[in-house]
Amino acid sequence: EVQLVESGGGLVQPGGSLRLSCTASGFTFSSSAMTWVRQAPGKGLEWVSSIYNRINNTYYADSVKGRFTISTDNAKNTLYLQMNSLKSEDTAVYYCNSRINFSDYWGQGTQVTVSS
What we know:
The protein is 0% helix and 56% strand. With 116 residues, the protein is an all-beta fold. The chain starts with a strand and ends with a strand.
């Protein structure tokens, strides 16, 4: 059974940092593509970043480029999102996602709130 479990969200002031984690199980993490997606209050899903684990290629939305870093630890089957210089517009529920055999799998999400 595929499982994705996010953690690391919280309340942070503008300009601060957080690191989100997504622990995966039930599939071959080291050869999978992993994605972070977020949903701000009252808005739709927004793609944030992806990593193609097998070749370690990374991609970022323009809104987070230069501030966020996606990475993986294959020994721990864990996906990370290091978020720096956070802005109020980064407030959202953050989800990790993996597409496996043409099916999308999602974690339960972790809330990030950027506010003074």
